[in-house]
Design goal:
74 residues, mainly alpha, 2 helices, 82% helix, elongated
Length: 74
């Protein structure tokens, strides 16, 4: 299941990065509105991937933190 989500996030991130770069080139060529829309769209797609990656890091950090809730104390 994790491999499936990893492949899905990469399938969104790679085109997002390409669209972001293409949007930047279009902005430089003189069509600022279209380039900006493409750049923002690519950024959103790339952030989709990064949010999934960062949530995994957050779960690892939470797992390593000491439990201060007092539930496990005897």
């Amino acid at each position: 299941m994790i491999k499936r989500y990893n492949n899905l996030s990469l399938a969104i991130a790679i085109p997002g990065l390409i669209i972001q770069i293409a949007g930047r080139f279009i902005m430089d060529s003189g069509q600022e509105a279209l380039g900006l829309v493409m750049f923002i769209g690519g950024t959103v797609m790339l952030l989709w991937y990064l949010a999934g990656f960062l949530s995994l890091i957050g779960l690892i950090i939470l797992a390593l933190l000491k439990d201060h809730s007092g539930v496990n104390e005897v």
